[in-house]
Design goal:
214 residues; alpha+beta; five-stranded antiparallel β-sheet; five-stranded mixed β-sheet; 10 strands
């Protein structure tokens, strides 16, 4: 499997996974996804299986280079908190923004419970650290709080968001900051081992992250 960013050619597969992972009132429609890709394609992370088995093709998430396994997306901004209007207003993206917002962490049903989302999340954490952003912010249902805490996210309590008329917890992961914890450091180290460890001669890559120097 490999990770890449999105193009508009991926739109149908992305919309299929989005619809499978969220109820209609929470899922982004195909127009919203297209607007996001046009505004911030490099803030879509796609996990692709180029060697999908025949049994995996029952789910309509086929890409030109394989099967869409998981994807994560969201804008960058200087705003510290994730607001509901960010989901529909892709123009709010600021490439120089301090915070990476995540709108969805999604895995096609046939690939769920295999560690795919965790693998991709570690890659997002690594890329966000490389970009020297302050951290990552997302909202999740209460049942998923523990999952995100396993990467070093802190539960900031119930969010002001009422996206899809649901109750959300805001989660924050601090990067390149003095108060980032060991769990965050481990997430970055593991992502390096999974993706680019061959480039990290004598710690030249990981050494740039303050969170790993503590």
């Amino acid at each position: 499997m490999f990770v890449r960013h999105a193009t508009l050619d991926d739109l149908d597969a992305l919309a299929s996974v989005e619809a499978a992972c969220f109820p209609p009132q929470e899922a982004a429609d195909i127009e919203s996804l297209a607007n996001r890709i046009e505004r911030f394609p490099k803030h879509f992370w796609l996990l692709v299986n180029p060697d999908s088995a025949a049994g995996d093709t029952c789910f309509p998430a086929q890409l030109e280079d394989g099967m869409l396994v998981s994807f994560i997306n969201g804008m960058a901004t200087d705003e510290r908190d994730l607001r509901d209007d960010m989901y529909s207003r892709a123009e709010l993206h600021d490439e120089r923004g301090a915070w990476q917002m995540l709108f969805g962490v999604e895995t096609a049903p046939v690939y769920q419970h295999r560690g795919c989302a965790a693998y991709l999340m570690r890659r997002v954490i690594l890329d966000t650290a490389i970009s020297h952003r302050s951290g990552i912010v997302l909202t999740c249902k209460e049942r998923l709080v523990g999952f995100y805490e396993s990467f070093g996210f802190i539960d900031e309590g119930v969010s002001a968001s009422n996206h899809g008329n649901a109750l959300w917890h805001q989660m924050r992961l601090m990067l390149n900051a003095d108060n980032a914890d060991e769990t965050t450091s481990n997430s970055i180290r593991r992502a390096m081992a999974e993706t680019t460890s061959y480039l990290d001669h004598n710690g030249t890559s990981t050494g740039q992250f303050r969170v790993l120097a503590q």
